[in-house]
Design a protein that fits this description.
There is one protein chain. This protein has 19 helices and 14 strands. The protein is elongated and about 110 Å long.
């Protein structure tokens, strides 16, 4: 990193003109509120990174660097707002000057130009953790574990861990959904085959027994074993000659219709009802909460957008943007939407189960409609086709929501419909069809055998196909879950080792500034996508810092954790840090201990500190902070 020798500021924030000579040494800026202390901090950050966190961070709304970094009297002339820093780079053994104007904040003028020096400042620009303000202490202390995990990993240069974890979670969830869908399709094929055979469960010997009984009628050889290559209808004539409607197995048709009738009389299955009500409840909550719905709509878009921010301009319209700034903005939004992502995953599972139930009913209805049309005289199938189409509409509405969360109204309406109930007209057609098949004269044994074997072959092949697909999906899902679990275990172990080392440093630092807490200990515990932080409270147990410790103690903890993280991340390269009013709630005696800690533990680091204690104004030969 660097050490600062001099700073020159013009028309920036609350500063008209100011020159400071830091001499690469520690530097304190003290004064009442409004005297420009934070302006110096902002100037340093701006010159080194082209950004001002205070104007562009989360929740800053309409504030911007170009609009509000210039002095208020020159807000229309951003070209007059500039900062120049002369710094030494210890690793290179040379001095450089960097200058930046608000008019062109992304352009850094480096003198003398040097690729190695540019690399140093590029790193500062990418990870500006050299500056810590009091409000940013909350990132490490009083913040949700998921947010703390992201912030700490960013500082430790481990942000890729969270990104990979999210990718593995997303893929594992996708594989799980597709595995469940494939298994539902296999189960439907199995049920269809059991219905055709009239068996409560599939058994090789029973299946061969049923098939061979029909083959015997046709004088065909007995099948000795059941394999994926088995052809039940091998050697059988293609068409019967004696049946009025060749190709239809009366017994199978009646079994299919009876199964459908039983499903209709049983009303909505309990498991399906639970999934439907769960999905409906979640959708209604989303609809009522506009912010949550907005996050739901944007979740996939934000994730995709984050992947596309690789260049310095929009890939669609070529409009220039600050890629680093936009990427951080999207990460913040994505973090806010992480809980929404979990909700959407649960909702997707419930909707998937409902769609499976709809598919099962629609398949049975279409089959019944085909049977109705096959009778002579045929039964009108319009009502059955209409019911099947309505089921398709319900499924389409649910699928549409999964693709586009703005279509929530359609999904709610679909789940509110009692699609498992059959309209009177459709039920009448089903009854007519069932009666029609019951009244059919029995086909000749030969024709019945031909039709039976054809149906058996079709359903057996469908079961084989869906079983292969389900097995493949199951293997892929198992692999995805193992990869996800292994990555979590390994990454957590790596993080635990890092956090244990950081926690030990943190504990030592905090003890150094609070010698009245000799038994104090701090704990950092890594969990998937979370980082818990607990501290001792006078030997009475460990708790989150905000539970019992005072605001002053929390500020001290935030500073100590920051220092421990920076030491672990940069080691000997930690040569520069700006601490902006981080000791505001720390009393005078403990401030002395903080200074002693910085001097003894970080003798090679230049600290620039601001504090509102006292009433001193900073003056220089070229101006006064206003």
């Amino acid at each position: 990193m660097i050490r600062i020798k001099t700073i020159h500021i013009e028309e920036f924030r609350g500063i008209r003109e100011l020159d400071l000579d830091l001499g690469c040494a520690n530097f304190g800026i003290c004064g009442p509120n409004g005297t420009g202390k934070s302006g110096v901090v902002d100037a340093i950050e701006f010159c080194l990174t082209g950004n001002v966190t205070r104007l562009s961070g989360q929740g800053q709304g309409e504030l911007s660097v170009k609009g509000h970094a210039p002095h208020v009297d020159h807000r229309k002339n951003p070209d007059k707002a500039k900062v120049a820093i002369t710094a030494t780079i210890p690793s290179l053994g040379k001095d450089v000057t960097i200058t930046r104007t608000v008019k062109n904040p992304r352009i850094m003028i480096l003198t003398p130009a040097d690729p190695a020096a540019e690399a140093v400042f590029d790193e500062l620009q990418s990870h500006p953790e050299f500056a810590l303000s009091r409000r940013e202490i909350a990132k490490y202390i009083v913040t949700p574990p998921a947010k703390r995990s992201t912030d700490v990993q960013n500082l430790l240069r481990l942000e890729h861990i969270g990104g990979l974890r999210r990718a593995f979670v997303s893929y594992a969830n996708k594989c799980k959904r597709e595995d469940e869908e494939a298994e539902r399709a296999r189960k439907r094929a199995e049920d269809d085959l059991k219905t055709a055979l009239g068996l409560p469960a599939l058994d090789r010997e029973k299946v061969l027994e049923r098939a061979n009984a029909q083959r015997g009628i046709l004088g065909l050889p007995t099948l000795a074993e059941l394999t994926p290559q088995t052809s039940f209808k091998e050697g059988a004539p293609k068409d019967g000659k004696d049946s009025e409607k060749p190709g239809i197995a009366k017994d199978v048709a009646l079994a299919d219709l009876a199964a459908l009738s039983a499903a209709i009389k049983a009303a909505e299955p309990a498991t399906l009802k639970a999934h439907r009500e769960s999905a409906l409840s979640a959708l209604r909550k989303l609809k009522e909460d506009e912010k949550a719905l907005s996050l739901a709509r944007a979740h996939g878009f934000i994730t995709t957008g984050l992947q596309l921010v690789t260049e310095d301009a929009c890939p669609l319209c070529d409009t220039p943007w600050n890629a680093d700034e936009l990427r951080e903005h999207l990460k913040t939004k994505l973090l806010s939407a992480e809980e929404m992502g979990t909700l959407l995953e649960s909702l997707g599972k419930a909707i998937g189960a409902v769609v499976g139930g709809i598919d099962e009913r629609a398949t049975a209805i279409r089959k019944a409609a085909d049977y109705a049309g096959a009778l002579s005289p045929s039964v009108l199938r319009a009502e059955l086709d209409s019911y099947a189409e309505a089921l398709g509409d319900v499924k389409a509405a649910l699928k549409a929501f999964q693709e586009d969360h703005s279509k929530i109204e359609g999904a709610i309406s679909a789940l509110e419909k009692k699609w498992w109930e059959v309209a009177a007209e459709a039920q009448a057609r089903l009854d007519e069809t069932q009666k029609g098949f019951t009244a059919l004269p029995d086909s000749s044994a030969k024709d019945n055998a031909i039709a039976f074997l054809a149906v058996l072959q079709d359903r057996y092949e469908r079961l084989l196909s869906t079983t292969r697909a389900a097995k493949a999906m199951g293997m892929r899902n198992a692999t995805a879950q193992k990869v996800h679990d292994h990555y979590n275990a390994v990454s957590n172990k790596v993080l635990e080792d890092i956090y244990d080392a950081v926690a030990k440093e943190f504990t030592d630092f905090y003890k150094a500034i609070n010698d009245d807490e000799g038994r104090f200990v701090g704990e950092l515990k890594a969990e998937p996508a979370k980082l818990s932080f607990n501290v001792d409270f006078y030997g009475r147990g460990t708790f989150p810092p905000g539970a019992y410790h005072s605001e002053g103690h929390q500020d001290g903890m935030g500073l100590c954790l920051y220092l421990a993280l920076m030491k672990h991340t940069l080691g000997d390269k930690f040569t520069f840090a700006v601490l902006d009013d981080v000791l505001m709630s720390v009393d005078t005696s403990h401030r002395r201990e903080v200074c002693r800690l910085l001097k003894t533990k970080f003798p090679d680091t230049q600290f620039i500190l601001t504090t509102s204690a006292g009433t001193t104004r900073i003056r220089s030969s070229s101006g006064t902070l206003r």
